[in-house]
Design brief:
The chain is an alpha+beta fold. The chain has 2 helices and 8 strands, in the order αβαβββββββ. Helix content is about 25%, strand content about 30%.
Length: about 170
Amino acid sequence: MHAHDSPRAEQELRGRVRSRRFSIIAATAVMVVVVANAVIWTLRPYADETLRSVADEADFQVGVWLTFLDQRPADGTLRGYEPYRGLEPWSFVNGQGLQCLLIGSRSQRLAMTTQCMPPGVDLSADVVAIPRWNDDFAEGLTPGSMIRFHLRGDSVDVVFYPAPETDPSQP
C-alpha cells in the first residue's frame, strides 16, 4: 500500500481540490462583478448639463401651463430651473402628493410634457425634436433626437440622445 493511497492522504487531496475549486469559483465571481460594473458604468447616461434652481414663484406663463394641465402645486413646492435650449423645467408636488416635473416652452407657449411620480421614485420627462412643430429647442437637431430632464432634488440633469443621421436620398 502506498502512502498516497491512505484515507488520510485521500482526504487531504480532496480538501486541496475543493479549495482550488472554491478559489476558481470565487475568482470567477469577482471577475463577473467587475465586468458587470464596468459595463453598467460605461452604458449609464451621464448628464450633458446640470440645471440649477432659479425660481420658486410662477409667472403668468407658468400659471397658464399649470392651469392647462389642471395641476395645483402644494404651497411652497413650486421650483423653476435654468432653461435648456429654450425649455424650462419646473418641479412641484401636486394635490395628490406626487412629485411632478413640467417642461414648458415659452416660444410655443406650451407645456411640452409633464410627468408625476410618487415620492422616492426617479422622475424624468422627455421631449422629442419633431421638425414640423417648428420648436426653437429643436433647431439644428436631427428629427427624433430626445432631451431627457431628470429631477435630482435641487437640480435637473439633462441628457441628450441624438437621433441617427438619415440620408436624404433614401426614402
